Amino acid sequence: MASAALTLPRVLLASAALRISLMVYGEWQDAHLEVRYTDVDYLVFSDAAASVAAGRSPFARATYRYSPLLAYLLLPNSLLHPAWGKLLFSAADLLVGLFINTILKLRGVPDRTRIWSVIAWLFNPFTFTIGTRGNCRVLQAAF
């Protein structure tokens, strides 16, 4: 059994808090520093979503080379808040952590090893930075 400090809900909550903190920091960095935190492709995704919201094709922007589905998934960037996509991508990242736990549980992996495997994914700087910067690659990992 995993120790009380390392339960799946606590790990997910801490991981979600980290991602939200990074998104908030990223907004500050984008507004105040020359080097942006936000992935340049996120601006392309957001422009495509704005184009769809205006009734046009996501391919109106010459640099948009992604699935139209991505533009539709990011419609709330134009309608609710520009950080919607980053929240979506970060949620997909947390979902991958849940998938890791579920797959390992189905394979009979002990609780402690499962939790540490989830931690290895969710607290890997490479993985948590991808979604919080607005890169959609984490959706591929979740799918």
From TrEMBL:
One of its GO terms (cellular component) is endoplasmic reticulum membrane. GO terms for biological process: GPI anchor biosynthetic process. InterPro entries: PIG-M (IPR007704). It is a multi-pass membrane protein. GO terms for molecular function: alpha-1,4-mannosyltransferase activity; GPI mannosyltransferase activity. Transmembrane segments: none annotated. Residues 1-26 form the signal peptide. Keywords: Endoplasmic reticulum, Glycosyltransferase, GPI-anchor biosynthesis, Membrane, Signal, Transferase, Transmembrane, Transmembrane helix. Pathway: Glycolipid biosynthesis; glycosylphosphatidylinositol-anchor biosynthesis. It is found in: Endoplasmic reticulum membrane. The keyword Cell membrane does not apply. Belongs to the PIGM family. This is GPI mannosyltransferase I. It comes from Zizania palustris (Northern wild rice).
